[in-house]
Protein backbone atom coordinates (compact mmCIF):
# COMPACT_ATOMS: atom_id res chain seq x y z
CA UNK A 1 0.00 0.00 0.00
CA UNK A 2 2.81 2.41 0.93
CA UNK A 3 4.60 1.63 -2.32
CA UNK A 4 1.49 2.52 -4.26
CA UNK A 5 1.22 5.90 -2.54
CA UNK A 6 4.90 6.60 -3.33
CA UNK A 7 4.37 5.78 -7.00
CA UNK A 8 1.28 8.00 -7.09
CA UNK A 9 3.21 10.86 -5.46
CA UNK A 10 6.04 10.47 -7.97
CA UNK A 11 3.54 10.57 -10.82
CA UNK A 12 2.08 13.84 -9.50
CA UNK A 13 5.57 15.32 -9.16
CA UNK A 14 6.39 14.47 -12.74
CA UNK A 15 3.07 15.87 -13.97
CA UNK A 16 3.43 19.13 -12.05
CA UNK A 17 7.15 19.56 -12.75
CA UNK A 18 8.12 19.30 -9.07
CA UNK A 19 10.89 16.76 -9.56
CA UNK A 20 13.84 19.11 -10.03
CA UNK A 21 16.34 16.34 -10.59
CA UNK A 22 14.82 15.38 -13.94
CA UNK A 23 15.56 17.35 -17.08
CA UNK A 24 12.85 18.84 -19.25
CA UNK A 25 11.49 17.06 -22.29
CA UNK A 26 13.70 16.63 -25.29
CA UNK A 27 16.88 16.40 -23.22
CA UNK A 28 17.09 20.16 -22.68
CA UNK A 29 19.12 21.27 -19.70
CA UNK A 30 17.42 23.16 -16.89
CA UNK A 31 18.61 26.42 -15.33
CA UNK A 32 20.50 24.82 -12.44
CA UNK A 33 22.49 22.68 -14.84
CA UNK A 34 23.33 25.64 -17.07
CA UNK A 35 24.49 27.71 -14.09
CA UNK A 36 26.74 24.93 -12.88
CA UNK A 37 28.20 24.49 -16.37
CA UNK A 38 29.02 28.18 -16.82
CA UNK A 39 30.60 28.29 -13.35
CA UNK A 40 32.82 25.29 -14.21
CA UNK A 41 33.54 26.23 -17.82
CA UNK A 42 36.93 27.95 -17.91
CA UNK A 43 38.73 29.58 -20.80
CA UNK A 44 41.11 27.47 -22.83
CA UNK A 45 43.43 30.08 -24.39
CA UNK A 46 42.16 29.27 -27.89
CA UNK A 47 40.47 32.49 -28.99
CA UNK A 48 37.97 31.06 -31.44
CA UNK A 49 36.96 28.23 -29.11
CA UNK A 50 36.50 30.64 -26.20
CA UNK A 51 34.41 32.99 -28.33
CA UNK A 52 32.25 30.04 -29.37
CA UNK A 53 31.71 29.11 -25.71
CA UNK A 54 30.73 32.68 -24.87
CA UNK A 55 28.33 32.86 -27.80
CA UNK A 56 26.68 29.57 -26.82
CA UNK A 57 26.29 30.66 -23.21
CA UNK A 58 24.84 34.08 -24.09
CA UNK A 59 22.56 32.89 -26.86
CA UNK A 60 23.80 35.45 -29.42
CA UNK A 61 22.01 38.29 -27.63
CA UNK A 62 21.39 41.37 -29.77
CA UNK A 63 23.11 43.75 -27.34
CA UNK A 64 26.27 41.62 -27.17
CA UNK A 65 29.11 43.33 -29.07
CA UNK A 66 32.28 41.64 -30.32
CA UNK A 67 35.19 43.73 -31.66
CA UNK A 68 38.13 41.85 -33.16
CA UNK A 69 41.59 43.41 -33.40
CA UNK A 70 45.31 42.67 -33.65
CA UNK A 71 47.77 44.12 -31.13
CA UNK A 72 51.45 43.63 -31.88
CA UNK A 73 50.52 40.88 -34.33
CA UNK A 74 48.50 38.94 -31.71
CA UNK A 75 44.78 38.45 -32.42
CA UNK A 76 42.34 39.49 -29.70
CA UNK A 77 38.72 40.47 -29.06
CA UNK A 78 36.90 43.07 -27.01
CA UNK A 79 33.49 42.08 -25.62
CA UNK A 80 30.84 44.27 -24.00
CA UNK A 81 27.10 44.84 -23.75
CA UNK A 82 25.83 47.77 -25.79
CA UNK A 83 24.18 50.39 -23.59
CA UNK A 84 26.01 49.45 -20.39
CA UNK A 85 29.43 50.73 -21.41
CA UNK A 86 30.81 54.13 -22.29
CA UNK A 87 31.55 54.16 -26.01
CA UNK A 88 34.48 56.51 -25.59
CA UNK A 89 36.07 54.16 -23.08
CA UNK A 90 35.81 51.13 -25.37
CA UNK A 91 37.19 53.11 -28.33
CA UNK A 92 40.06 54.36 -26.16
CA UNK A 93 40.93 50.79 -25.15
CA UNK A 94 41.06 49.68 -28.79
CA UNK A 95 43.05 52.75 -29.85
CA UNK A 96 45.57 52.15 -27.06
CA UNK A 97 45.99 48.46 -27.84
CA UNK A 98 46.32 48.86 -31.61
CA UNK A 99 48.05 52.21 -32.13
CA UNK A 100 50.13 52.53 -28.98
CA UNK A 101 51.48 49.01 -29.30
CA UNK A 102 52.69 49.79 -32.84
CA UNK A 103 53.99 53.22 -31.87
CA UNK A 104 55.96 51.90 -28.90
CA UNK A 105 56.97 48.72 -30.76
CA UNK A 106 55.62 46.52 -27.96
CA UNK A 107 55.67 42.85 -29.03
CA UNK A 108 52.69 40.76 -27.91
CA UNK A 109 53.78 37.19 -27.28
CA UNK A 110 51.30 34.34 -27.39
CA UNK A 111 50.17 33.51 -23.86
CA UNK A 112 51.40 36.88 -22.51
CA UNK A 113 48.85 39.19 -24.10
CA UNK A 114 46.93 39.95 -20.91
CA UNK A 115 50.05 40.62 -18.87
CA UNK A 116 51.51 42.97 -21.49
CA UNK A 117 48.25 44.88 -21.93
CA UNK A 118 47.79 45.20 -18.18
CA UNK A 119 51.33 46.22 -17.28
CA UNK A 120 52.42 48.36 -20.25
CA UNK A 121 49.34 49.81 -21.96
CA UNK A 122 46.18 49.83 -19.85
CA UNK A 123 47.44 51.60 -16.76
CA UNK A 124 44.41 51.57 -14.48
CA UNK A 125 43.33 50.34 -11.07
CA UNK A 126 39.99 49.19 -12.49
CA UNK A 127 41.34 45.98 -14.03
CA UNK A 128 40.60 42.43 -12.94
CA UNK A 129 41.10 38.88 -14.18
CA UNK A 130 38.24 36.41 -14.75
CA UNK A 131 38.74 32.74 -15.60
CA UNK A 132 35.25 31.34 -16.22
CA UNK A 133 32.15 32.11 -18.30
CA UNK A 134 29.92 32.93 -15.30
CA UNK A 135 32.36 35.52 -13.97
CA UNK A 136 32.69 37.05 -17.43
CA UNK A 137 28.95 37.65 -17.83
CA UNK A 138 28.69 38.97 -14.28
CA UNK A 139 31.32 41.63 -15.03
CA UNK A 140 29.90 42.47 -18.47
CA UNK A 141 26.46 42.97 -16.91
CA UNK A 142 27.95 45.60 -14.57
CA UNK A 143 29.23 47.64 -17.49
CA UNK A 144 32.69 46.14 -17.91
CA UNK A 145 34.47 45.31 -21.15
CA UNK A 146 36.39 42.05 -21.55
CA UNK A 147 39.69 41.56 -23.39
CA UNK A 148 40.60 38.14 -24.80
CA UNK A 149 43.93 37.26 -26.43
CA UNK A 150 45.06 34.19 -28.28
CA UNK A 151 46.97 31.94 -25.90
CA UNK A 152 45.65 33.47 -22.67
CA UNK A 153 43.32 31.21 -20.61
CA UNK A 154 41.71 34.16 -18.84
CA UNK A 155 39.90 37.43 -19.55
CA UNK A 156 40.95 40.96 -18.59
CA UNK A 157 38.01 43.07 -17.35
CA UNK A 158 38.19 46.85 -17.89
CA UNK A 159 35.86 49.24 -16.10
CA UNK A 160 33.91 51.04 -18.84
CA UNK A 161 30.66 51.61 -16.96
CA UNK A 162 28.27 54.30 -18.08
CA UNK A 163 25.72 54.34 -15.28
CA UNK A 164 22.44 56.03 -16.05
CA UNK A 165 21.49 57.47 -12.67
CA UNK A 166 18.90 59.97 -11.60
CA UNK A 167 19.81 63.17 -9.85
CA UNK A 168 20.10 63.26 -6.07
CA UNK A 169 16.90 64.74 -4.65
CA UNK A 170 15.00 64.95 -1.38
CA UNK A 171 13.09 61.77 -0.46
CA UNK A 172 9.38 62.35 -0.97
CA UNK A 173 8.39 60.14 1.97
CA UNK A 174 10.80 61.67 4.51
CA UNK A 175 10.64 65.43 4.08
CA UNK A 176 12.12 67.82 6.64
CA UNK A 177 11.91 71.56 7.28
CA UNK A 178 15.49 72.37 8.29
CA UNK A 179 17.47 69.21 7.57
CA UNK A 180 19.56 68.12 4.56
CA UNK A 181 17.76 67.75 1.24
CA UNK A 182 19.75 64.93 -0.33
CA UNK A 183 18.58 61.33 -0.48
CA UNK A 184 19.77 57.95 -1.67
CA UNK A 185 19.31 56.87 -5.29
CA UNK A 186 19.52 53.49 -7.04
CA UNK A 187 23.30 53.61 -7.55
CA UNK A 188 25.29 51.91 -4.78
CA UNK A 189 28.49 53.89 -5.38
CA UNK A 190 26.65 57.20 -5.12
CA UNK A 191 24.93 56.09 -1.91
CA UNK A 192 28.18 55.07 -0.22
CA UNK A 193 29.78 58.35 -1.31
CA UNK A 194 26.99 60.29 0.43
CA UNK A 195 27.97 58.52 3.66
CA UNK A 196 31.70 59.08 3.05
CA UNK A 197 31.10 62.82 2.69
CA UNK A 198 29.58 62.88 6.18
CA UNK A 199 32.06 60.50 7.79
CA UNK A 200 35.53 61.13 6.29
CA UNK A 201 37.29 58.70 8.63
CA UNK A 202 39.20 55.50 7.83
CA UNK A 203 37.20 53.63 10.49
CA UNK A 204 34.11 53.70 8.25
CA UNK A 205 34.33 50.18 6.87
CA UNK A 206 32.26 49.07 3.89
CA UNK A 207 32.15 45.37 3.08
CA UNK A 208 30.75 44.32 -0.27
CA UNK A 209 29.16 40.98 -1.08
CA UNK A 210 27.26 39.54 -4.03
CA UNK A 211 23.83 38.02 -3.35
CA UNK A 212 21.36 36.37 -5.72
CA UNK A 213 22.28 33.44 -7.94
CA UNK A 214 20.84 35.12 -11.04
CA UNK A 215 20.79 38.83 -10.21
CA UNK A 216 24.35 38.97 -8.75
CA UNK A 217 23.28 42.01 -6.73
CA UNK A 218 25.91 44.08 -4.95
CA UNK A 219 25.18 44.49 -1.24
CA UNK A 220 27.20 46.79 1.03
CA UNK A 221 27.55 46.38 4.79
CA UNK A 222 28.53 49.63 6.54
CA UNK A 223 29.73 50.14 10.11
CA UNK A 224 32.26 52.12 12.11
CA UNK A 225 35.11 49.89 13.18
CA UNK A 226 35.72 50.13 16.89
CA UNK A 227 32.26 51.55 17.58
CA UNK A 228 29.90 48.84 16.30
CA UNK A 229 30.10 45.67 18.36
CA UNK A 230 32.06 42.91 16.65
CA UNK A 231 29.35 40.40 17.56
CA UNK A 232 26.71 42.54 15.82
CA UNK A 233 28.85 42.88 12.69
CA UNK A 234 29.57 39.15 12.56
CA UNK A 235 25.91 38.28 13.10
CA UNK A 236 24.74 40.64 10.35
CA UNK A 237 27.38 39.34 7.96
CA UNK A 238 26.46 35.74 8.77
CA UNK A 239 22.73 36.28 8.21
CA UNK A 240 23.39 37.92 4.86
CA UNK A 241 25.78 35.19 3.72
CA UNK A 242 23.20 32.51 4.48
CA UNK A 243 20.70 34.02 2.02
CA UNK A 244 20.46 31.84 -1.09
CA UNK A 245 17.80 32.90 -3.60
CA UNK A 246 17.53 33.65 -7.29
CA UNK A 247 17.48 37.45 -7.14
CA UNK A 248 17.81 40.31 -4.67
CA UNK A 249 15.92 43.28 -6.12
CA UNK A 250 15.69 45.45 -3.02
CA UNK A 251 16.16 45.67 0.72
CA UNK A 252 12.75 44.05 1.26
CA UNK A 253 14.14 40.80 -0.13
CA UNK A 254 16.83 40.79 2.56
CA UNK A 255 14.65 41.99 5.41
CA UNK A 256 12.55 38.83 5.37
CA UNK A 257 15.68 36.72 5.89
CA UNK A 258 17.60 38.66 8.53
CA UNK A 259 14.98 39.73 11.10
CA UNK A 260 14.80 37.89 14.41
CA UNK A 261 11.06 37.22 14.27
CA UNK A 262 9.19 37.25 10.94
CA UNK A 263 5.84 36.61 12.67
CA UNK A 264 5.15 40.20 13.64
CA UNK A 265 3.55 43.29 12.15
CA UNK A 266 6.22 45.60 13.56
CA UNK A 267 9.34 46.41 11.51
CA UNK A 268 12.50 44.97 13.06
CA UNK A 269 14.79 46.77 10.60
CA UNK A 270 14.56 50.50 9.96
CA UNK A 271 14.09 51.57 6.32
CA UNK A 272 15.18 55.02 5.23
CA UNK A 273 16.22 57.02 2.17
CA UNK A 274 18.05 59.71 4.14
CA UNK A 275 21.88 59.70 4.37
CA UNK A 276 21.75 61.83 7.54
CA UNK A 277 19.67 59.17 9.31
CA UNK A 278 22.09 56.47 8.23
CA UNK A 279 25.05 58.54 9.44
CA UNK A 280 23.40 59.13 12.81
CA UNK A 281 22.73 55.40 13.12
CA UNK A 282 26.35 54.55 12.33
CA UNK A 283 27.50 57.02 14.98
CA UNK A 284 25.38 55.17 17.52
CA UNK A 285 27.10 51.87 16.72
CA UNK A 286 24.50 50.38 14.40
CA UNK A 287 25.04 48.51 11.13
CA UNK A 288 23.63 49.65 7.78
CA UNK A 289 22.82 47.55 4.71
CA UNK A 290 22.73 49.11 1.23
CA UNK A 291 21.57 47.26 -1.89
CA UNK A 292 22.31 48.21 -5.48
CA UNK A 293 19.20 49.15 -7.44
CA UNK A 294 17.19 50.59 -4.54
CA UNK A 295 17.31 53.92 -2.66
CA UNK A 296 16.32 52.34 0.66
CA UNK A 297 18.81 51.44 3.38
CA UNK A 298 18.28 49.01 6.25
CA UNK A 299 19.45 49.93 9.75
CA UNK A 300 19.89 47.25 12.40
CA UNK A 301 19.26 46.82 15.25
CA UNK A 302 16.02 48.80 15.47
CA UNK A 303 13.85 49.76 18.44
CA UNK A 304 10.27 51.05 18.55
CA UNK A 305 11.54 54.35 19.99
CA UNK A 306 13.73 54.83 16.93
CA UNK A 307 10.70 54.55 14.63
CA UNK A 308 9.06 57.51 16.37
CA UNK A 309 11.99 59.89 15.85
CA UNK A 310 12.05 62.37 12.98
CA UNK A 311 15.03 64.39 11.66
CA UNK A 312 13.36 67.68 12.56
CA UNK A 313 13.55 66.69 16.24
CA UNK A 314 17.29 67.42 16.12
CA UNK A 315 17.21 70.56 13.97
CA UNK A 316 14.50 72.54 15.80
CA UNK A 317 14.64 74.35 19.15
CA UNK A 318 14.29 72.03 22.12
CA UNK A 319 10.82 73.17 23.37
CA UNK A 320 9.40 72.76 19.87
CA UNK A 321 11.05 69.37 19.41
CA UNK A 322 9.76 68.07 22.77
CA UNK A 323 6.23 69.29 22.08
CA UNK A 324 6.13 67.76 18.60
CA UNK A 325 7.51 64.42 19.80
CA UNK A 326 4.98 64.17 22.65
CA UNK A 327 2.26 65.10 20.17
CA UNK A 328 3.49 62.34 17.90
CA UNK A 329 3.24 59.72 20.65
CA UNK A 330 -0.25 60.96 21.55
CA UNK A 331 -1.26 60.67 17.91
CA UNK A 332 0.06 57.10 17.85
CA UNK A 333 -2.17 56.19 20.82
CA UNK A 334 -5.16 57.90 19.20
CA UNK A 335 -4.59 56.13 15.91
CA UNK A 336 -4.44 52.75 17.63
CA UNK A 337 -7.13 53.00 20.33
CA UNK A 338 -9.71 55.65 19.39
CA UNK A 339 -12.00 53.52 17.14
CA UNK A 340 -12.01 50.60 19.58
CA UNK A 341 -12.70 52.87 22.57
CA UNK A 342 -15.53 54.64 20.73
CA UNK A 343 -17.20 51.39 19.70
CA UNK A 344 -16.75 49.89 23.17
CA UNK A 345 -18.11 52.93 25.01
CA UNK A 346 -21.13 53.40 22.74
CA UNK A 347 -21.99 49.69 22.78
CA UNK A 348 -21.20 48.62 26.36
CA UNK A 349 -20.33 51.63 28.53
CA UNK A 350 -22.63 54.57 27.70
CA UNK A 351 -22.55 55.59 31.38
CA UNK A 352 -19.00 56.86 30.86
CA UNK A 353 -20.24 59.59 28.56
CA UNK A 354 -21.98 62.79 29.69
CA UNK A 355 -25.73 62.42 29.22
CA UNK A 356 -26.11 65.25 26.65
CA UNK A 357 -23.28 63.82 24.56
CA UNK A 358 -24.70 60.30 24.67
CA UNK A 359 -28.18 61.52 23.71
CA UNK A 360 -26.64 63.46 20.82
CA UNK A 361 -24.84 60.37 19.56
CA UNK A 362 -28.02 58.30 19.83
CA UNK A 363 -30.05 60.92 17.95
CA UNK A 364 -27.56 60.99 15.06
CA UNK A 365 -27.80 57.19 14.78
CA UNK A 366 -31.57 57.19 14.25
CA UNK A 367 -32.35 55.43 11.00
CA UNK A 368 -28.86 53.95 10.57
CA UNK A 369 -29.40 50.28 9.63
CA UNK A 370 -26.00 49.01 10.84
CA UNK A 371 -24.53 48.59 14.33
CA UNK A 372 -21.63 50.80 15.34
CA UNK A 373 -19.00 48.13 14.63
CA UNK A 374 -20.28 47.66 11.08
CA UNK A 375 -20.24 51.42 10.47
CA UNK A 376 -16.69 51.70 11.77
CA UNK A 377 -15.32 48.77 9.77
CA UNK A 378 -17.04 49.86 6.56
CA UNK A 379 -15.71 53.41 6.79
CA UNK A 380 -12.24 52.20 7.76
CA UNK A 381 -12.14 49.88 4.75
CA UNK A 382 -13.36 52.64 2.44
CA UNK A 383 -10.67 54.97 3.73
CA UNK A 384 -7.98 52.31 3.28
CA UNK A 385 -9.13 51.75 -0.31
CA UNK A 386 -9.00 55.50 -0.97
CA UNK A 387 -5.54 55.70 0.59
CA UNK A 388 -4.29 52.85 -1.59
CA UNK A 389 -5.85 54.39 -4.69
CA UNK A 390 -4.19 57.71 -3.90
CA UNK A 391 -0.80 55.99 -3.69
CA UNK A 392 -1.18 54.11 -6.99
CA UNK A 393 -2.59 56.96 -9.06
CA UNK A 394 -0.28 59.48 -10.76
CA UNK A 395 1.01 62.14 -8.34
CA UNK A 396 -0.87 64.92 -10.13
CA UNK A 397 -4.31 63.44 -9.42
CA UNK A 398 -3.74 60.93 -6.61
CA UNK A 399 -4.13 63.29 -3.61
CA UNK A 400 -7.07 65.06 -5.23
CA UNK A 401 -8.93 61.80 -5.89
CA UNK A 402 -8.38 60.50 -2.35
CA UNK A 403 -9.42 63.74 -0.63
CA UNK A 404 -12.41 64.46 -2.88
CA UNK A 405 -13.45 60.81 -2.71
CA UNK A 406 -13.37 60.83 1.10
CA UNK A 407 -15.40 64.04 1.30
CA UNK A 408 -18.00 62.98 -1.24
CA UNK A 409 -18.41 59.44 0.05
CA UNK A 410 -18.56 60.56 3.70
CA UNK A 411 -21.15 63.25 3.03
CA UNK A 412 -23.21 60.96 0.80
CA UNK A 413 -23.14 58.16 3.38
CA UNK A 414 -24.39 60.52 6.12
CA UNK A 415 -27.14 61.94 3.91
CA UNK A 416 -28.24 58.44 2.91
CA UNK A 417 -28.42 57.39 6.57
CA UNK A 418 -25.90 54.59 6.12
CA UNK A 419 -23.47 55.88 8.75
CA UNK A 420 -23.67 58.37 11.61
CA UNK A 421 -21.64 61.62 11.75
CA UNK A 422 -19.88 60.50 14.94
CA UNK A 423 -18.31 57.50 13.22
CA UNK A 424 -17.15 59.68 10.32
CA UNK A 425 -15.49 62.08 12.77
CA UNK A 426 -13.75 59.23 14.63
CA UNK A 427 -12.44 57.67 11.40
CA UNK A 428 -11.21 61.05 10.15
CA UNK A 429 -9.41 61.84 13.43
CA UNK A 430 -7.85 58.39 13.46
CA UNK A 431 -6.59 58.77 9.90
CA UNK A 432 -5.13 62.20 10.56
CA UNK A 433 -3.40 60.93 13.70
CA UNK A 434 -1.96 58.01 11.74
CA UNK A 435 -0.27 60.36 9.26
CA UNK A 436 1.91 61.79 12.04
CA UNK A 437 3.88 58.54 12.46
CA UNK A 438 7.32 59.13 10.87
CA UNK A 439 7.98 55.51 9.83
CA UNK A 440 5.60 54.23 7.17
CA UNK A 441 6.15 50.60 8.19
CA UNK A 442 5.08 51.35 11.78
CA UNK A 443 2.09 53.34 10.53
CA UNK A 444 0.97 50.35 8.46
CA UNK A 445 1.29 48.02 11.47
CA UNK A 446 -0.85 50.37 13.57
CA UNK A 447 -3.49 50.53 10.82
CA UNK A 448 -3.80 46.75 10.78
CA UNK A 449 -3.87 46.46 14.57
CA UNK A 450 -6.61 49.09 14.68
CA UNK A 451 -9.07 46.63 13.13
CA UNK A 452 -8.31 44.07 15.83
CA UNK A 453 -8.77 46.66 18.61
CA UNK A 454 -12.09 47.77 17.07
CA UNK A 455 -13.41 44.20 16.93
CA UNK A 456 -12.30 43.54 20.51
CA UNK A 457 -14.03 46.75 21.62
CA UNK A 458 -17.26 45.70 19.90
CA UNK A 459 -17.09 42.21 21.41
CA UNK A 460 -15.98 42.81 25.01
CA UNK A 461 -16.13 46.58 25.45
CA UNK A 462 -13.28 48.45 27.09
CA UNK A 463 -12.14 45.22 28.72
CA UNK A 464 -11.50 43.82 25.24
CA UNK A 465 -9.51 46.92 24.26
CA UNK A 466 -7.51 46.64 27.47
CA UNK A 467 -6.83 42.95 26.86
CA UNK A 468 -5.75 43.59 23.26
CA UNK A 469 -3.45 46.37 24.45
CA UNK A 470 -1.93 44.05 27.05
CA UNK A 471 -1.29 41.37 24.41
CA UNK A 472 0.33 43.96 22.15
CA UNK A 473 2.65 45.17 24.92
CA UNK A 474 3.61 41.59 25.81
CA UNK A 475 4.33 40.90 22.15
CA UNK A 476 6.47 44.03 21.88
CA UNK A 477 8.39 43.03 25.00
CA UNK A 478 9.17 39.66 23.43
CA UNK A 479 10.56 41.12 20.20
CA UNK A 480 14.28 41.42 19.57
CA UNK A 481 16.18 43.08 16.77
CA UNK A 482 19.58 41.42 16.48
CA UNK A 483 19.35 40.62 20.17
CA UNK A 484 18.40 44.15 21.28
CA UNK A 485 15.03 44.46 23.11
CA UNK A 486 12.49 46.19 20.88
CA UNK A 487 11.09 48.36 23.69
CA UNK A 488 14.40 49.62 25.03
CA UNK A 489 15.05 51.99 26.77
CA UNK A 490 11.60 51.49 28.38
CA UNK A 491 11.86 47.74 28.81
CA UNK A 492 14.44 47.11 30.08
CA UNK A 493 14.49 50.55 31.70
CA UNK A 494 17.71 52.40 30.88
CA UNK A 495 17.61 55.81 32.53
CA UNK A 496 20.55 57.26 30.61
CA UNK A 497 18.85 56.52 27.27
CA UNK A 498 15.56 58.20 28.22
CA UNK A 499 17.08 61.53 27.16
CA UNK A 500 16.14 60.67 23.58
CA UNK A 501 12.87 58.78 23.99
CA UNK A 502 9.51 60.36 24.84
CA UNK A 503 11.28 63.67 25.10
CA UNK A 504 14.64 64.92 23.95
CA UNK A 505 17.26 67.15 25.60
CA UNK A 506 19.80 69.65 24.38
CA UNK A 507 22.62 68.32 22.22
CA UNK A 508 25.19 69.17 24.89
CA UNK A 509 23.15 67.04 27.31
CA UNK A 510 23.26 63.87 25.20
CA UNK A 511 26.60 62.73 26.49
CA UNK A 512 26.31 59.01 25.86
CA UNK A 513 25.39 56.66 23.06
CA UNK A 514 22.64 54.03 23.48
CA UNK A 515 23.90 51.69 26.17
CA UNK A 516 22.91 48.41 24.49
CA UNK A 517 24.37 49.40 21.10
CA UNK A 518 27.20 51.90 21.48
CA UNK A 519 28.73 50.52 24.66
CA UNK A 520 32.21 50.18 23.16
CA UNK A 521 32.56 53.96 23.01
CA UNK A 522 29.92 55.18 25.48
CA UNK A 523 30.62 58.94 25.35
CA UNK A 524 29.73 61.09 22.37
CA UNK A 525 31.28 64.29 23.72
CA UNK A 526 33.05 65.65 26.81
CA UNK A 527 31.16 67.02 29.78
CA UNK A 528 30.82 70.73 30.39
CA UNK A 529 29.75 72.19 27.05
CA UNK A 530 26.58 73.82 28.34
CA UNK A 531 26.54 77.43 27.11
CA UNK A 532 26.77 80.09 29.83
CA UNK A 533 26.72 83.85 29.42
CA UNK A 534 30.08 85.47 30.14
CA UNK A 535 31.97 82.19 30.12
CA UNK A 536 35.46 82.37 28.65
CA UNK A 537 36.36 79.75 26.03
CA UNK A 538 39.09 78.26 28.22
CA UNK A 539 37.19 78.48 31.49
CA UNK A 540 36.28 75.21 33.24
CA UNK A 541 32.68 74.35 34.00
CA UNK A 542 33.41 74.06 37.67
CA UNK A 543 35.43 77.28 38.02
Please describe what this structure looks like.
- The chain has about 550 residues and is an alpha+beta fold.
- It has 3 domains: about 35-160, no CATH class; about 190-300, no CATH class; about 315-485, no CATH class.
- The chain is built from 18 helices and 12 strands.
- The strands form 3 sheets. A 5-stranded antiparallel beta sheet has the order 1-2-4-5-3.
- α7 packs across α10, α14 (about 370-390) packs antiparallel against α15 and α14 (about 370-390) crosses α16.
- Residues about 15-25 have low confidence and may be disordered.
Quickly describe the structure.
Helices cover 45% and strands 12% of the residues. It is an alpha+beta fold. 29% of the residues are buried.
Order of helices and strands: HHHEEHHEHEEHEEHHEHEEHHHHHHHHEE
- Give the neighbour order of strands across the main sheet: 1-2-4-5-3
Query: What structural category arises from helix and sheet content?
Result: alpha+beta
Helix content: 40-55%
Number of domains: 3
- Share in β-strands: 5-15%
How many strands? Answer: 12
Apparent shape: elongated
The end-to-end span amounts to 93 Å
How large, in whole angstroms, is the Cα Rg? 31 Å
The stretches of 5 or more residues where confidence is low (pLDDT under 50) are 16-26
Q: Kindly report the average pLDDT value.
A: 85
- The DSSP helix count reads 18
Largest sheet: 5 strands, antiparallel
Amino acid sequence: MAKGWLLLLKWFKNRLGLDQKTESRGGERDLSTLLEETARDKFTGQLELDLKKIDDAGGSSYDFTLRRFHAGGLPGALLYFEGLTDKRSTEEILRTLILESEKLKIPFKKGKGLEIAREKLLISDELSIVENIAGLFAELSRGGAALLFEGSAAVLICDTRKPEIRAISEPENETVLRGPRDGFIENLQVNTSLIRLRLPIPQLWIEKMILGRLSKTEVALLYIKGLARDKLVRETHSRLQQIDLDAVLGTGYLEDYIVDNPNTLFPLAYRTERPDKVTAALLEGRVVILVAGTPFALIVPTELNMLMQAPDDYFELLPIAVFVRLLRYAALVISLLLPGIYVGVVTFHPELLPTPLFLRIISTREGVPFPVIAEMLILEMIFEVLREAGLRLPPAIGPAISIVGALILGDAAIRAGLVSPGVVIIVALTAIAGFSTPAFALSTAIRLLRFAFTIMGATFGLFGVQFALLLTVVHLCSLRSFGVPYLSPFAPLILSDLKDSLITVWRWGMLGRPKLIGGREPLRQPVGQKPRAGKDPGEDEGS
